Amino acid sequence: MQKKIPMRKCVGCGEMKDKKDLIRIIRTGEGEILLDATGKANGRGAYICKSSECLKKAARNKGLERSLKAQVPGEVLERIEKELI
Length: 85
Description:
Largest sheet: 3 strands, antiparallel
Radius of gyration: 12 Å
Number of helices: 3
Strand order of the largest sheet: 4-3-5
């Protein structure tokens, strides 16, 4: 039997991709928004492609805010964009 590959949707471009090809952004219980490198941290998560283009799209269409159910400040987006590169 073949192992099932977990798929997740990018909140920027809306494409379904392998979970391992996407980056997870989480909102912790304290309301802090972080990049989750391990993919296993506690918190509400949103997945995004490893491109700054998808991050910009997610910010523009409010996809990240919808997924995390929180306002995402501009400086947090800038910090995440720096970590993406």
